Amino acid sequence: xxxxxxxxxxxxxxxxxxxxxxxxxxxxxxxxxxxxxxxxxxxxxxxxxxxxxxxxxxxxxxxxxxxxxxxxxxxxxxxxxxxxxxxxxxxxxxxxxxxxxxxxxxxxxxxxxxxxxxxxxxxxxxxxxxxxxxxxxxxxxxxxxxxxxxxxxxxxxxxxxxxxxxxxxxxxxxxxxxxxxxxxxxxxxxxxxxxxxxxxxxxxxxxxxxxxxxxxxxxxxxxxxxxxxxxxxxxxxxxxxxxxxxxxxxxxxxxxxxxxxxxxxxxxxxxxxxxxxxxxxxxxxxxxxxxxxxxxxxxxxxxxxxxxxxxxxxxxxxxxxxxxxxxxxxxxxxxxxx
Length: 338
Ligand code: HSE
Known about the structure:
Layout: E1 2-9, H1 13-24, H2 26-33, E2 35-43, E3 47-50, E4 64-65, H3 70-75, E5 80-83, H4 95-104, E6 108-111, H5 115-131, E7 135-136, H6 148-154, E8 160-166, H7 169-180, H8 185-194, H9 203-206, H10 209-222, E9 232-234, H11 242-251, E10 253-264, E11 267-278, E12 291-297, E13 301-307, H12 313-337
Parallel strand pairs: 1-2, 1-5, 5-6, 6-7, 9-11
Antiparallel strand pairs: 2-3, 3-4, 8-10, 8-12, 10-11, 12-13
The structure holds L-homoserine (HSE).
């Protein structure tokens, strides 16, 4: 049985959920992938823990100060990095150093936080290609809602002409609550924060930056584009007022915060803003914390996926879906090499 060593950098709620789910699935990895998957290191910004024979759940509450950083992960002997640190698309956040280090060493990497990928996506993509490392980002690109997977697998070979995505759960919840439960923006927002799915800084959700980040990841990693935040026009829902809600209700329209990509004459145009849909459109029925994507291709017409899933478990599961794809590819490569 092959031993696969995994390290997790970034140990907040999502990093911990990923560690726990990975450990709970070790029997599955043995049975389905013939792999002994070991969690050999975890770290937050100031503390961590490593053990080459594999960490168990009970030890994950006793991180040791000083064990952190790309060198710590390097020294752990991990084959695969899962990056789940705080996300900052303006600086790349701590994830950028972890990913540069892992990908330059040819270490397969699974990314959950969006910051580094939005900030330096094309660089990291090129780095992965140059060393042959696999770079997967389901957890960052809308998590439980499949996005890049749809393009790479289900729509393989098709030319994507247009994408429309309700990619942010918080704003979908807020607009839904304002339309259907007569809540004001502030009250709906406090409920979303109490539910734990809004970003710590709600402006990332409400001003459209989270949607824009996911859209950039889908474009750059799913469609091989090179978009940056400067290429997008980004508008959020912060200025949606009670009279807008009233007008949409009267017109039978449903507002959604949508990230859109359209290919015209070879160029890709991307934007984030509120769109309204009649009830005859499926996107009008994506309610509450659900997300959705509509992909229009040249040969398969329209494909729509709707996803839900509770944070942080759904995000952890999306990252571990990537892990299983990596295990499958590694096994195939090992067979070819024999
Ligand atoms: N706050 C995000 C959302 C989850 O509401 O969809 C993390 O991207």
